[in-house]
Specification:
alpha/beta, single chain, four-stranded parallel beta sheet, 12 strands, about 40% helix, two-stranded parallel ribbon
Length: about 350
């Protein structure tokens, strides 16, 4: 191996600090970004919509800072109400005022009478209600985090339009917690377990508490009345309240709902149908194929059993695979997720952006 000596001048040129690099080339890089990207909102090219929205924000009890308006409120509000996007993401560091910005976005909804639903962690429900009362004038706040379903049932029996601005706040635990289920089958003569609908004998369902008849498709389970009697409010809203009952949904700490197999992930599953399904199909994803999505945008772990490998060593000599792989999703995301799906629908606010105010 031959050692190559690098002159001191070249070595010095290779060690460049990022801050110095941005000082030298920042203007050129900024020009390239502006040329290649077309942001939804640009404060330097504000049109009539932006000016009207600014005037509306002055009517808030607590008007936001200018940096909050430019970097968070107007970009998200314009994407929802002007560009007609189905969803937008506000990404902000702790202390940037995400609660205030979210309420300001809801206030800019062009409908004079509107009903906003906010799903947040249980310990933040009262905070959202307090912030709404201190921010939006003449707002009506409704705490959905109570145990009773009486309020939702009353709207199921008689759907009423909102009067003014209504803010409904529900905790994520109250939204997801549902009744427990138990297997519900019948036994014919001879102790044969059968379907309660078609009466055809069924195979052993094991420990499955929610079996489905393979012959007629009937659900062979019912609510367990001996356990806690409750109904998930997210499921009730989806099943019994009309479409468009809420004009806007705000999901606080949305990263906590990412588990598709968890109860809180299922509680917001109906919302994912709004996340540009046409683009997902165009990219080759199929409904229900979560592993296909994880392989491209997540982290997939493949494991092999040592016993399977030992048993397959002889088979490997004739070209067969060694062992059986088991595939499962692991925590983590791919960097491709940001530019492909999130960046064009997100507004970012850092604490440094508002520190001067």
């Amino acid at each position: 191996m031959t050692d190559v000596a690098i002159p001191a001048e070249q070595e010095e040129r290779k060690a460049v600090k990022l801050a110095d690099f941005l000082d030298d080339w920042g203007d050129i890089l900024k020009a390239q970004v502006i040329e290649n990207m077309d942001p939804v909102y640009n404060p330097k090219r504000e049109d009539d919509w932006g000016q009207t929205a600014r005037e509306q924000l002055k009517n808030l009890v607590r008007p936001p800072f200018e940096s909050q308006t430019q970097r968070g409120i107007l970009p998200v509000a314009r994407s929802l109400y002007k560009e007609d996007y189905k969803a937008a993401t506000l990404v902000g560091e702790m202390g940037t005022g995400k609660t205030l910005m979210g309420l300001a976005v809801a206030y800019l909804d062009p409908k004079p009478d509107k009903r906003i639903c906010i799903q947040a962690p249980g310990h933040l429900v009262k905070k959202w209600i307090r912030e709404a009362q201190q921010t939006i004038p003449n707002v009506v706040c409704i705490n959905l985090n109570e145990k009773s379903l009486a309020r939702l049932i009353s709207h199921k029996l008689e759907v009423r339009k909102p009067s003014g601005i209504e803010v409904w706040v529900i905790g994520k635990e109250r939204a997801k917690l549902h009744f427990q289920r138990k297997k519900q089958t019948v036994f014919r003569r001879g102790g044969i377990e059968s379907c309660p609908e078609c009466g055809i004998p069924i195979e052993d369902t094991g420990n499955n508490r929610t079996p489905v008849c393979e012959h007629c498709g009937a659900r062979m389970w019912s609510a367990d009345r001996d356990k806690v009697r409750r109904y998930a409010k997210a499921e009730f809203i989806k099943r019994y309240l009309p479409k468009g009952f809420f004009d806007l949904l705000i999901l606080d700490e949305v990263q906590e709902y990412k588990g598709g197999g968890t109860a809180q992930g299922q509680a917001m599953s109906c919302l994912t149908t709004r996340a540009r399904p046409a683009k997902m199909v165009k990219d080759g994803f199929q409904y229900g194929r979560t592993m296909q999505f994880a392989e491209r945008y997540g982290v997939v772990e493949r494991t092999y059993d040592s016993e399977d490998i030992a048993a397959s060593l002889n088979a490997a000599s004739i070209g067969r695979k060694i062992g059986r792989s088991r595939v499962k999703e692991s925590p983590g995301i791919s960097p491709l997720l940001l530019p492909d799906l999130l960046l064009e629908r997100s507004a970012f606010v850092r604490l440094n952006d508002i520190s001067d105010e």
